[in-house]
Amino acid sequence: MSASGSANYEYVVARVRSRRASLFSDDEYRKLLRMGTGEIARFMEETEYEDAVNALGSRFSGVDLVEYALNRTLAENFRDLLRWSEGRLYEQVARYLRKFDAWNAKTVLRGLYSDATADEVRSDLIDAGEFSEDFLDRLVAADSIESVVELLDGTLFDAYIEDAFEVYEETGTLVPLENAVDRAYYENLVPPKTGGGEAAELYREFLEAEIDFRNARNALRLARSGADVDPAEYFIDGGALFDRTEISQLVGNRSELVTRIRESRYGDELTVALDELEDAESLIGFEHALDRALLEYSDHLSYVYPLSVCPVLAYVLAKEREVDNIRAIARGREAGLSEAEIEEELVIL
Amino acid sequence: MFDTLAQFVTILAEETGSSPAIPQGAAAALAVGLAALGAGYAERGIGSAAVGAIAEDRDLFGTGLILTVLPETLVILALVVVFAA
């Protein structure tokens, strides 16, 4: 667990691959789909979620138990990744896992905005990023959005969130703050283009794919909603597919946007999804297809370059998907959705 | 300076006569040593991957052990050279 010395890809990749292989399969999801929330918790007790379910079992039940167990296991898993990695690998994984810092910052802001209690907010935080436990506690204890912004002084989000706070004070909506947090994360994600050799190059390729997909999703959502928002404002720098000026034009013209994605390097993985999008009007289907394509692309990268950071990042993505899927099933069951409806919400490779 | 060097070389050449710079036994030892070095380097990566796999699943101990020592064959083959020499 240090940033010095050489990277230990072999060790980390072997462990990660083993964990990747033990993620839930199609069959297990299908089994889960037929269960009630209590049964889901019991089923999870027999898997790697055992510790979390046992630890939280006395305090929560039903959907809450499932949800908190998922969050806790996710955080433990990603802390493990950091514990194992050394050298450059540690640096790259840590940089990527700041995603959870962004998530935590947003959760705290949303909690304050919606007057949630500190306990509720704290239990929704995922303790996997760079923020220490103490710092998270202090964030949760803050009594206004302004003091959260002050607390974030000196972190990655500093410069972005200060400007956004002024906008927030004028408009009273949370969107600019959330947007600032996301932008801060993504724009610091891709390391500068100088040097670093093949390892850095691969890392960049992976992250560019993620940013491209995020941009594509935002663009399509905007195109779909027809809202009168300047797409350039929501654009995230650092991708390879679009640039800021292009995206404004493409949002106005959906078929051109689709063609553009089809002709890009992700075209092969996305063909089916793009056909679907052109035929149907459903954006949800396409977004899930994007998720699936990103998963496939990350797996592809991790097989082509086995001794690199790619398998680790692919695992992070896959694990997040699993957690999202189980949560969707548990929440869907609770809300009384039918099996078919829930199945549509799942992203399974 | 160059004179003395030239003299030294001549003396050396006279002393060793026509025998090679590295005698046969030493060459064989060198071959085994280099092979062992290569095997060690190969085992470094495999070993750390094997330990990672075993940490996740203890049943992989046998497989991990076998894969880890596979490059050891390099040294065994290199040992043949000693007897051939």
TrEMBL record, chain A:
Q: State the InterPro entries in the record.
A: ATPase_csu/dsu_sf, ATPase_V0-cplx_csu, ATPase_V0-cplx_csu/dsu, V-ATPase_V0D/AC39_subunit, V-type_ATPase_csu/dsu, V-type_ATPase_csu/dsu_dom_3
GO process terms (BP): proton motive force-driven plasma membrane ATP synthesis
Q: Where found?
A: Cell membrane
Q: Does the keyword Cell membrane apply?
A: yes
Q: What is its main location?
A: membrane
Task: Spell out the GO cellular component terms annotated for this protein, sorted alphabetically and separated by semicolons.
Answer: plasma membrane; proton-transporting V-type ATPase, V0 domain
Q: What NCBIfam families does the entry give?
A: AhaC, PRK01198.1-1
Protein name per UniProt: A-type ATP synthase subunit C
Organism name: Halobacterium bonnevillei
- Taxonomic placement: Archaea, Methanobacteriati, Methanobacteriota, Stenosarchaea group, Halobacteria
Whichever gene encodes this chain, its name is atpC
UniProtKB/TrEMBL annotation, chain B:
State a single Pfam family of this protein: ATP-synt_C
Any GO CC annotation of this UniProt entry: proton-transporting two-sector ATPase complex, proton-transporting domain
Where does it live in the cell? Membrane
UniProt keyword list? Membrane, Transmembrane, Transmembrane helix
Is Membrane given among the entry's keywords? yes
User: Where would you find the membrane-spanning parts of this chain?
Assistant: 20-39, 60-84
**Membrane protein topology class:** Multi-pass membrane protein
Report the residue ranges that make up the V-ATPase proteolipid subunit C-like domain in this protein. 27-83
Molecular function via GO: proton transmembrane transporter activity
Protein name, please? F0F1 ATP synthase subunit C
Organism, by scientific name, is Halobacterium bonnevillei
**Which lineage do the record's taxonomy fields give for this organism?**
Archaea, Methanobacteriati, Methanobacteriota, Stenosarchaea group, Halobacteria
